[in-house]
Specification:
heterodimer, A: 291 residues, alpha/beta, 11 helices, 15% strand, globular, B: 345 residues, mainly alpha, ABC transporter involved in vitamin B12 uptake, BtuC, two-stranded antiparallel sheet, 14 helices
């Protein structure tokens, strides 16, 4: 038989066997997408993960799983070598040709949304619930999440009744050097706005900044996300690499705060509400602490 | 002339190495297949009628993943090395590489336009989307090279020195245009662009392979016919034309073959540096500068080196994968230095 005909027969065979298996739930999962892997863990299915991509950094225990590399640069054979029942990822996953090869080998590729909004999260959680065979739990998790965000919005409204929204900038950098400012249409912008801040940057996407422009905007609060350092070390590095920052209001008043950069990729993650609450408290220091 | 290796033994050695690299490239990967299964699946792929029970996975991995990847590696490695020989012959300078006539920077510009522009415009038709990048890279490479060639021509003569300088200027220009697109790109497209610049044989498919195989076969069959003319050109342009060589025609052919070959290779596998510069060098160190040996030997050596590099790229961090551009230089540069140092004593 010729190669092509044999392949077609084989693929058809795979589809049939796949359809007959549709009742069975996937047991070996490979996840390419940070927030997605976190949600799998939250839904209690971490033990089903047999491989994750490099953006899956939380919870910490995921780091001990085999790494399939960066989500846009997957290798078909690499993923297949983990013998997965399913590959989950967002529309950021690729390259497309590799996804085709993985599907061709009979491994379903389930696509999720990386959009940072509640509707996408609801869809993602429903989808995960179906794959895990526990849609009720997934629905409950979403409901709780929504409630947390709603409550948080009340907190922001209450704070804004007595105080003006602070002008904020978010810097994304690497060991303090050459930070970029988060503009419109970024997860960072969503985070700042949701926390009740006013993002002073008006460009879209992440762009390198000119120190003069930054000093000119003179934000009341500075939020930074550092990809290689954390805590005090990151703060020091930022000020050391960018001395002009010392002259802005945020630095003078000690209002420089940190967010974990992994919160900013792959859509709304489970750790966001917690950080939002804190951020709001940091934006509105005079407001009573939330319940 | 005395050389380190006689042409005959060079060809035997290189062919053996090349066959070895092909076999390893088919037999090894993150998915470990029993050797016997690989062998049987390989025999079935070439049409030997043997029983195929239990071979589904082996056949799929071999036929749909490793074979196209191996063919892609052979073609890309071969055509890049060949273009390197053509450029070093044209400029009569061993430091020349295909980038000099602007084909690489033009392709990079085309790719940047496709990646950043494609992301901005979004909804491309399903059947065309995946090919946009390849097509833009190919056309970019061809376009900039044509411009460089055009700028080097005056009164029906091609001035190689002017062409070289025009190549440098246009490379700088294309580089700054790529920089502009980098600035405009968002985080995701930026990563795509970065990885494209490091090259990869990942995700090879037959649909993308055929154009490259045809171009490679064409260039690999055509250039060796001009080996004698290239040898004559080594003496100098006027000397070559006194020997009865159509120097202008030769230059045109060399530039055209390079633009076509490198353009197609880059379109299929992204930017893979080093092969075009160093492989011809390696062969010359081993077997001397005679183009009758240099051209075919470089094809073999380039293909072999790229396949070995790809083996490391896919195995070193499995199940993740390294960009191959990192490996080619990492593998080739020390070996090249070793030969260079040895040659001095």
């Amino acid at each position: 038989m010729r190669l092509s005909t044999r392949l077609i027969t084989f693929c058809a065979g795979l589809m049939i066997s796949h359809a007959s298996l549709a009742g069975e739930l996937p047991q070996r999962w490979v996840s390419a997408g940070g927030a997605l892997s976190e949600w799998v863990s939250v839904l209690g299915a971490e033990s089903k993960l047999v491989g994750v991509d490099t953006t899956s950094q939380h919870p910490e225990s995921l780091k001990s799983l085999p790494s399939i590399g960066y989500q846009r640069q997957l290798s078909a054979e690499g993923v297949l070598s983990l013998k997965p029942d399913v590959l989950i990822g967002t529309e950021e996953m690729g390259p497309a040709a590799v996804l085709l090869q993985i599907r061709g080998a009979g491994v379903p590729v389930e696509m999720f949304s990386a959009q940072a909004d509640l509707a996408s999260l609801e869809g993602n959680l429903q989808h995960l619930g179906r794959l895990l065979g526990d849609e009720a739990q997934a629905a409950q998790v979403f409901k709780n999440y929504q409630q947390q965000l709603d409550q948080h919005q009340q907190q922001v409204k209450a704070a804004q009744a007595t105080q003006q929204a602070p002008g904020v900038l978010l810097l994304l950098g690497h060991a303090g050097g050459k930070p970029m400012i988060a503009g419109k249409d970024t997860a960072a912008d969503w985070l700042l706005t949701q926390a009740g801040g006013h993002n002073l940057a008006t460009h879209s996407g992440y762009k390198p900044f000119s120190v003069e422009a930054l000093a000119g905007l003179n934000p009341e609060v500075l939020v930074f996300a550092d990809r290689s350092l954390t805590g005090e070390a990151a703060r020091k590095a930022l000020l050391k690499e960018n001395p002009v920052l010392a002259s802005i209001r945020a630095a003078k008043n000690g209002r420089i705060y940190e967010v974990d950069p992994t919160l900013l990729v792959g859509g709304l993650g489970p750790r966001l509400p917690e950080r939002l609450k804190q951020l709001t408290a940091e934006f509105y220091p005079a407001a009573p602490a939330s319940q | 002339m005395r050389t380190l290796v006689k042409p005959r033994s060079l060809f035997i050695g290189l062919s053996a190495l090349c066959l070895l690299s092909i076999w390893l490239s088919l037999a090894l990967g993150p998915v470990s297949l029993p050797l016997f299964d690989t062998l049987r699946a390989a025999l079935r792929l070439v049409g030997v009628p043997i029983a195929g029970e239990g071979l589904e996975q082996a056949e799929l991995i071999l036929g749909q993943i490793r074979l196209p990847r191996t063919l892609l590696g052979l073609a890309v490695g071969g055509v890049l090395a060949l273009s390197g020989v053509a450029m070093q012959g044209l400029f009569r300078n061993p430091l020349a590489d295909p980038g000099l006539v602007g084909v690489s920077s033009g392709a990079a510009l085309g790719a940047a336009i496709a990646i950043v522009g494609g992301a901005a415009f979004g909804g491309l038709p399903e059947f065309f989307g995946p090919y946009l990048l390849s097509l833009c890279a190919f056309l970019g490479g061809l376009g900039v090279t044509a411009l460089v060639y055009r700028l080097g021509r005056r009164n029906g003569q091609t001035n190689v020195a002017v062409m070289l300088l025009a190549g440098i200027a246009l490379t700088a220009l294309a580089g700054s245009a790529v920089g502009l697109f980098t600035y405009l790109a968002d985080d995701a497209t930026l990563r795509t662009l970065t990885f494209w610049n490091l090259g990869s044989l990942n995700g090879a498919s037959y649909a993308r392979l055929w154009p490259l195989l045809i171009v490679t076969a064409g260039v690999a069959l055509w250039l060796p016919r001009r080996a004698k003319a290239l040898n004559a050109l080594l003496l100098g342009e006027s000397e070559a034309s006194h020997l009865g060589i159509d120097v202008e025609g030769l230059k045109r052919e060399l530039v055209f073959c390079t633009a076509l070959g490198v353009g197609a290779a880059v379109a299929a596998a992204g930017m893979i540096g080093f092969i075009g510069l160093v492989v011809p060098h390696l062969v010359r160190l081993l077997a001397g500068p005679d183009h009758r040996v240099l051209l075919p030997a470089s094809v073999l050596a380039g293909a072999t080196l790229l396949l070995f590099a790809d083996l490391i790229a896919r195995l070193a961090l499995a199940p993740a994968e390294l960009p191959i551009g990192i490996v080619t230089a990492f593998l080739g540069a020390p070996f090249f230095l070793y030969l260079l140092m040895r040659g001095r004593h």
